[in-house]
Amino acid sequence: MIKRAHISAAKFVDFGRTALNNTGLITFKDKWAAEKVNIYHHSYPKSNRIKNENSKARKVLLKVNSLLPNWFLKLEGDILYRFLY
């Protein structure tokens, strides 16, 4: 993404959202002089359990996913992404 932006002489690059507790990604983005902007997100009805970053279901899913092969994670993402975002 950064390379394409450079080649196309882009004036801005959207680095996307980052959870406040993801300090590693925030540090990486800070090194690129990314401007921090608060984004407020509200959903109705209440968010599902997997979307909630502090939910037990999400923590279990992340732990299980860390053990799975990449081909399976891609398949899982293709199937589940539309339900999560």
Largest sheet data: none
CA-based shape:
extended
* Secondary structure tally: strands: 0
Helical content stands at: 40-55%
Q: With helices defined by DSSP (H or I, 4 residues minimum), what is the helix count?
A: 4
- How many domains? 2
What does this structure look like?
The structure is a single chain. The chain has 85 residues and is mostly helical. The chain folds into two domains: 1-40, no CATH class; 47-85, no CATH class. It contains four helices and no strands. It has helices at 2-7, 23-31, 56-65, 70-84. It is extended. The relative contact order is 0.08.
Q: What attributes does this structure have?
A:
85 residues, mainly alpha, 2 domains, 4 helices
Question: Would you kindly provide a brief summary of this structure?
Answer:
This protein is 47% helix and 0% strand. The protein is mainly alpha-helical and 85 residues long.
How would the blueprint of this fold be written?
Elements: H1 2-7, H2 23-31, H3 56-65, H4 70-84
